[in-house]
Write a structure and sequence with these properties.
It is a single chain. The protein is mostly helical. It has 17 helices and no strands. The longest helix is centred in the first third of the chain and has 38 residues. This is MATE family efflux transporter.
């Protein structure tokens, strides 16, 4: 029998709480860095005026859809497949999955480029974009999505490495990239010396340069002796079962991702009925909610690796215990952030502008939604943990419940004469539905069935196979 790598043994045997905390630490560092990068870019774009800020609010949900799809949905499928292969000691399959992950990333990246270049104007207009804000949104969108392949490859390679239980390398690459990106972004936006200012397009150009550099570094690591995986691109034959193993989790996860971002997109469109300043206010406030996603991912990525590896090895009890430990941690952190934002909303909003209508809309959102962020955190981290099992039906149902409550509730609120704040109340109730559906169904046996637990590894593997 092949000897178990020490990193895989850590996922299978080490105490859960310190293991989760130790593996989550570099990911949380990534969250802080990514948050800083996103906020700084928004800060500089805000200096270009309210139309530019509204343009960022229009494009941001679609950028996050791409990020969450590539890192969380398809990326989760990649990490889950590799973790389960390593847990079952299928090293050749784990190595071959690297090429399959890259092919999938290329396909999705090209699809995002074509769809957004051709349909961007229609989409942003449907979300409430008009006039100068719509034109600025198109400039930013065309630049970002022209390089979609770079975003997808970066996140696919990061997922490959995280699937081995290595959270440090993707974290280090992100931090190092931010050191370059933070000064590069204002340089390209405003220009300096011989470098001409590109306006809002400069932020997008800096972002793509960051992903290009990060992709090259991650690939160099995978080709180095330090990598647990040994990808051999020229000698690997593409196999449908390996594509299927990634996509059966990733595509289902993508449905959840689309539903989550569609909820934000619908709220943006409903806010648009109150003017560009309302869009800017909502988009700026809701950016805090988006920042909770990488925080939950910081804990969710190691949980996915632990759960997936334990599933591969047949240790179902440890997989479930790890998920609940992570859920409790993330609930406490996200709820604390939400309560602070609700009590001091303008401390956040005035980082990006001081227009009264923008501040009012953003304050209404944070008062209504932020105190319920704990439910969002629980739903997110259990979604990532569920990817490790390959069972995503109920996490998807949780996202669809969120979409239904947010979309229908917001539409009915305005139809019945409600104001913008009632749209935001529906958003808050949607987060509650999201967290409760996912947590309650896992507690009820969604992973392994409600009646008994299989006694053998073979029985467990049969039960978790997709139907």
């Amino acid at each position: 029998m092949t000897a178990i790598d020490p990193r895989t043994r850590l996922l299978l045997e080490a105490p859960i709480v310190p293991t989760v905390l130790r593996l989550a630490a570099p990911n949380v560092l990534v969250m802080i860095v990514q948050a800083s990068v996103g906020l700084i870019e928004t800060y500089f774009v805000g200096k270009l005026g309210s139309d530019a800020l509204a343009a960022m609010a229009l494009v941001f949900p679609i950028v996050m859809l791409m990020q969450m799809s590539s890192a969380g949905a398809i990326g989760g499928g990649i990490a889950s497949s590799i973790a389960r292969a390593l847990g079952a000691q299928r090293r050749e399959d784990a190595d071959a999955l690297v090429l399959h992950a890259m092919v999938i990333a290329l396909g999705f990246g090209l699809a995002f480029t074509v769809i957004l270049l051709l349909g961007g104007r229609w989409l942003y207009a449907q979300m409430g974009g008009t006039g100068a804000s719509l034109e600025a949104a198109l400039v930013y969108s065309h630049w970002v999505f022209a390089g979609s392949v770079l975003v997808w490859l970066f996140n696919a390679l990061s997922a490959v490495i995280r699937g081995t239980g290595n959270m440090a390398v993707p974290a280090n690459v992100t931090v190092a990239g931010a050191v370059v990106l933070i000064p590069l972004s204002p340089l390209l936006i405003f220009g300096w010396g011989p470098v001409p200012g590109m306006g809002i397009a400069g932020g997008a150009a800096a972002l793509l340069l960051y992903y290009l550099g990060g992709t090259l570094v991650l690939w160099m690591y995978l080709r180095s002796p330090r990598s647990l995986l040994k990808p051999k691109l020229m000698s690997v034959r593409l196999r449908w079962p390996l594509f299927r193993d990634i996509l059966r989790i990733g595509l289902v996860g993508a449905i959840a991702t689309v539903a989550a971002n569609l909820s934000i997109g619908i709220a943006t469109a409903l806010s648009g009925q109150f003017g560009p300043d309302a869009i800017a206010g909502y988009g700026t406030a809701a950016r805090l909610e988006y920042l909770l996603v990488p925080l939950a991912f910081g804990f969710g990525a190691p949980l996915l690796a632990i759960v997936g590896t334990c599933i591969g090895a047949g240790n179902r009890e440890r997989a479930l215990k790890a998920a609940w430990v992570g859920a409790a941690m993330v609930f406490a952190i996200t709820e604390a952030i939400g309560l602070a934002a609700a009590m001091f909303p303008r401390s956040w909003l005035m980082l990006f502008g001081n227009e009264p209508a923008m501040l009012e809309a953003g304050t209404q959102y944070l008062h209504a939604v932020a105190p319920l962020y704990g439910f969002f955190g629980v739903g997110q981290v259990l979604y990532f943990a569920s990817q490790g099992t390959g069972r995503l039906f109920w996490p998807v149902m949780g996202n669809l419940a969120r979409l239904a409550v947010a979309g229908l509730g917001g539409w009915l609120a305005l139809r019945w004469g409600g104001d913008l704040v009632h749209v935001f109340v529906a958003q808050g109730m949607a987060l509650v539905a999201y967290g409760v559906v996912i947590a309650s169904t896992i507690a009820g046996g969604a992973w392994f069935g409600p009646v008994g637990w299989p006694r053998t590894t073979a029985a467990l593997m049969r039960r978790i196979q997709p139907t």
